[in-house]
């Protein structure tokens, strides 16, 4: 006997193409937000030129969020191999954005912290991106902004799953 389960009335099936539409839109918006920051450059960014690669920015922001991290914790968090993270950390140290200090209980390890200069750089990049986005949001209708306000927690939920 074949049983056909009725669709739950509170959870209708997503319309066809929703996953693709969201993927494309979110990727485009993410690329656009990344391009807004003058200090974040392409993969060709060099130490001291005032720009960060995407990997450097992600690592710096992760250390800031966690307050301190060991290089291994940072490598695991960013899901990159330790030798690659070593290069990222060195570039951030060379730019004065990240500092290393001895681990309080394990002399074989170091602890990473974002410097005041690094905190300021991250703050400025966030300010630029949010200003750009606020300007774009003002171009929308009140109804469109209301939809986005309701969608924001849902997108956040998806990002954490």
TrEMBL record:
Tell me where in this chain the HTH marR-type domain is found: 19-157
* Domain of life of the source: Bacteria
- SMART domains (UniProt xref): HTH_MARR
For this UniProt record, the keywords arranged alphabetically read as follows: DNA-binding, Transcription, Transcription regulation
Q: Name one GO molecular function term.
A: DNA binding
- Where do the record's region annotations for Disordered lie? 35-54
Query: Per its UniProt record, what PANTHER family does this chain match?
Result: CONSERVED PROTEIN, HTH-TYPE TRANSCRIPTIONAL REGULATOR RV0880
Q: What is this protein called?
A: DNA-binding MarR family transcriptional regulator
């Amino acid at each position: 006997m074949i049983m056909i389960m009725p669709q739950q009335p509170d959870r209708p099936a997503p319309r066809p193409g929703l996953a693709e539409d969201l993927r494309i839109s979110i990727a485009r918006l993410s690329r656009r937000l990344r391009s807004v920051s003058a200090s974040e450059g392409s993969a060709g960014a060099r130490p001291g030129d005032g720009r960060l690669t995407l990997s450097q920015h992600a690592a710096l922001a992760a250390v800031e969020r966690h307050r301190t991290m060991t290089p291994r914790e940072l490598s695991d968090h960013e899901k990159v191999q330790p030798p690659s993270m070593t290069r990222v950390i060195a570039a951030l140290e060379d730019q004065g954005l990240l500092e290393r200090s001895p681990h309080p209980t394990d002399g074989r390890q170091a602890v990473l912290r974002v410097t005041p200069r690094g905190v300021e750089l991250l703050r400025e990049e966030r300010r630029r991106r949010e200003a750009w986005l606020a300007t774009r949001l003002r171009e929308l209708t009140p109804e469109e902004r209301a939809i986005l306000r309701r969608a924001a927690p849902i997108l956040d939920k998806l990002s954490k799953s």
